[in-house]
């Protein structure tokens, strides 16, 4: 029995020792190999994950470059939320639907944390140029062409592509490139109201001898033709009202710059690929990365293309290579999933749902109305679809309420007055592309306003207590910080 | 004996089983915790490390956004190197020391891979603004002020800081801001030859009614005073010759823009902190990240500051938030090590060593000479030091060799001709801040040229076979890619 017991024990012992060796070996191997997938990037990855793990109650977020408290950055809260973790709501706070900050797409990127993460090495593209001598990433350009092919919103074959710091830089580059210059007659620059005000502000700011802002397009229609060059800005879909505008001036001296910032399935059915001479796109309203300042122009004429490249070179020496790397990662993420369709499904569903809620509230009102939106066949979705524009273009229908911005402001809704867009202040632009918190608060305040409509109608709305309308155009108004 | 043996075996078995439990526990714990430091960032980190591990023989590098072959990006080789891993040297290839590509600092960042790595989340700063409503990172601004305090090259207390896409964007913003505008007399813009050509090219390109390029500063010295505003560009240290220039025009209507791109201990002793009205710095020649396009201006006057902010807003809506994040990481890396001194030690040692080699070669020549560089007390290093400028400003001393660019070109050295800097072509700028490969090849080719000097002198150099000098200004000349 002693021997039998000893033999059993020996077997167990041998087995156990073998197991020990195996486990030791496993530890040894994986301490160098599994972990060893990573060496120099581990610290940065840990730092980023620690920041991403900071809880801001779903009403804010912390960033790696945020102002710190202790070792970690503090939460940056959505409007009307505050406190250390953004959990404190201020009910009396106004719904801020002024700017076109495209945070409605933030949840899409949070859900794709792994796919969209990017590690930048300390020595990434320190130099000026890519191997072909340009400052335009060939890989990024290739992905942009692929994306347009998937969406069907722009012809890129046989066209040149220029990168800019958002569409902003490209707008003025295009005006420069389309102006004859060389001491001839200055080109005229026009747009049709209501329009995105930066066209006029930018053109006037640069005060070039080669071009000059010339007012509304309508002034030139009567004239029929022009002996000097007239450059027409066409925003399609339009900012603020979402209409699929077309150039109205036609003739040899009329040139159109198509601002296609919103020509994505989030906001509009895509009737056809833009086949025009010069069209400008931006990451801001496509992926929601307004802060990255990345845009591109698709140009037919080689001479115009070369002039725009010259502009980029003399103005900023091209777009930051870091920004180009980031844009590439974002487009890769989009394209890798569902052949590039999921971001548009997400964007469209979000916008459609917001429009349904907004329409429902406004539909019972006689005091307020929203713009009509058309339905079109969409080449991307393969069916007829309604538009879901980035902005509500709200109108105050009561004759005496000509200051619609003021009417809403008094009710705790900060929109952007129509006069900012060279329309009247009977309209107000309501941004529907900000955070869910901003949108929910807008619907809530609007609901209260509409609910009170019957009572108000008895007394007649006189705009009492309405503050002076001050155009607050945060997309382009510089805000400064005192030291 | 059986029982004794059994007891020994039992003890071993118990011990072994305990060890098994311990090892199991260890594995279980660290499979979730050690590895678990990382979740969403792991894939991006692995991808970046795989790219960084691509061997390019020390004569090139692969980037995450490089053109791929198979799954991985291909090596981008230094000039004169080629092949899959950049190991093939072409001896007949010319030394290209034309551009100011600051790759001499690349080894510094490779040595600090972990400290300088950055992980960007998919949702990083999608919106337009920082919490204070500006588009300027307060953390980055704070680090910039700290860095100047360490180096002692600029007064920042009580000054405003504006960010731009490299110094390039800030140069024109400053001209705009210093011009009176408003339909008055256009301001004149001047610079003293030899000077960085973008001042003239940019000013003329923008063709503003508010300012005009007016030629060399010397034309205005005789006049003494001016009734209209004259804006003087002062590059100090100067590009191309490294001199510590001062503004030459003094008076109420004269305004100076100090371009301080090279005012760092890599290139010059720092005699004193610049206390002037408007000075412009750039990351390009400080950390070597020219591709990031990040610069800043330090401004005394609040009105000028506000005008420059307006320029940034209407031109590009500020600097990419991705670029700002990257710049912050780079400055944090610098500041965390040796109180911010090691990058300057590295940069200065590299430049000093290059100058010693260059001087040694040229010192035995009568045909070529280099600019004199002065010594100054340096507040940063606390001692008298010689300059080690970014560029050699080589002169052809033989009367008949007035096309010095051509003389060098024929000998396999591509510099930048003096006429590009509005000097004569008797001088050529040689960039000393490119890769070590570029520098070594320059010294090699120059050595051969000097060695052959005696033989050549007998026959008399007539510039035979010299190609036509075509100014090749790659820092700002747009290079386009055909589709």
TrEMBL record, chains A, B:
Alphabetical GO biological process terms: amino acid metabolic process
SUPFAM superfamilies: PLP-dependent transferases
All copies of domain Alliinase EGF-like, residue ranges: 39-93
Residue ranges of domain Alliinase C-terminal in the record: 95-450
Coiled coil: none
Record-level Gene Ontology MF annotations: carbon-sulfur lyase activity; transaminase activity
Keywords: Aminotransferase, Membrane, Pyridoxal phosphate, Transferase, Transmembrane, Transmembrane helix
Keyword Cell division set for record: no
Necessary cofactors: pyridoxal 5'-phosphate
Domain of life: Eukaryota
CDD domains per the UniProt record, alphabetical: AAT_like
Similarity annotation: Belongs to the alliinase family.
Subunit structure: Homodimer.
Annotated protein name in UniProt: Uncharacterized protein
Organism field: Linum tenue
